[in-house]
Amino acid sequence: MRQKARDGPRRRLQWIAESALPMHRPLPHLHQAAALPQRGLAQQLMALDRQLSPKAFVEAVLYVTGLDKTATVLDLSGVAVLRGAHLDILCHKLPNLRRVCLRATPLHDFPKVLMKLQALQELDLSDIQLAELPKQIGELRALRYLELSHNRLTKLPAEIGHLQDLRYLNASQNQLQVLCEPIGYLSKLRVLRLAVNRLVQLPRTLGALSELQVLQLSLNQLAALPEEVGRMRALR
C-alpha cells in the first residue's frame, strides 16, 4: 500500500505528460513545457515537486524530457522548482553532458556537482543571483562558452585563467570592481562582455588576448584603457 502511495505522483505525471505531448514525443528541453496548452505540464511539475523526493522528481524530469545517459545537453532554464539536490542526481545520471543551461533558476550558488562534468564545453549560469565564482571553475578545462551575466559577482577568480579553450565569456551586468590579471591567459578568447559593472581599471595583460574580436566595456567607471588594448589587432 505504501509503495502505491509513493508511486502515485509519478504515475500521475506520466499520464499528464503522455496526454499533453503531441504524438507522445518527449520535449528536448524541460523549459519548453511552458509552451504547452495552458502551461499545464509546467504547473504539474511545480505541484508534484512538493510531493516527490528529489530522486523521484528527477526520474519524472528524465521521463518528460526523454534524456538518458547518452545526453549531451541539459537545459533547465527558468525551472523555478530546481534545487541543488535535483542537479546532483541529474549530473550523476547524465555524465556525458557538454552543454548545461541553468539560466534564471533559484540555485544562487555555484553547483559543485558541475565539476564532475569534465567534458562540459558550454555553461550558462546567468540570472541566478550568483555572488561568487569558486576557484574550482578553472578545473573545467574543456569549457569554451561561459555565461555569467545578470548576477552579483564582484570579482572573477584568478583560476579562470586556466580555461585555455575558452572562446566566449560574458560577465556583464554584475558588480565587478576588478579584473584579475590571469584573464590575459585566455589566448583563444574571442568575445569578452563586461558591460554594466563597476570596473575602474583593466589589467595590462588584457592586451595579450590576440584573438579577441569583441570587447564590451560600456557603463563602467573606467577613466582610461591600458595602451596594450590598442595593439589588439583582431578587435572589431
Name a few traits of the molecule.
236 residues, alpha/beta, Leucine-rich repeat, LRR (right-handed beta-alpha superhelix), seven-stranded parallel β-sheet, 4 helices, 7 strands, disordered N terminus
Molecular structure report:
It is a single chain. The chain is an alpha/beta fold and 236 residues long. It contains four helices and seven strands. The chain has helices spanning 2-20, 40-48, 54-65, 84-93; strands at 73-75, 99-101, 122-124, 145-147, 168-170, 191-193, 214-216. The protein has a seven-stranded parallel β-sheet with strand order 1-2-3-4-5-6-7, with no helix packed on it. It is elongated, with a radius of gyration of 21 Å.
Brief overview, please?
This protein is an alpha/beta fold and 236 residues long.
Layout of helices and strands:
Blueprint: H1 2-20, H2 40-48, H3 54-65, E1 73-75, H4 84-93, E2 99-101, E3 122-124, E4 145-147, E5 168-170, E6 191-193, E7 214-216
Parallel strand pairs: 1-2, 2-3, 3-4, 4-5, 5-6, 6-7
Structural class: alpha/beta
Using the 3D structure, state the CATH architecture of the domain at 131-236: Alpha-Beta Horseshoe
Helix and strand run:
HHHEHEEEEEE
The low-pLDDT segments are: 1-6, 15-42
Mean pLDDT: 83
State Rg: 21 Å
Q: Give helix % range.
A: 10-25%
Biggest sheet: strand arrangement: 1-2-3-4-5-6-7
What is the number of helices?
4
Query: What percentage of amino acids are in beta strands?
Result: 5-15%
CATH class of the domain at 131-236: Alpha Beta
Main beta sheet strand tally, sense and closure: 7 strands, parallel
Q: CATH homologous superfamily of the domain at 131-236?
A: Ribonuclease Inhibitor
| Global morphology | elongated
| CATH topology description of the domain at 131-236 | Leucine-rich repeat, LRR (right-handed beta-alpha superhelix)
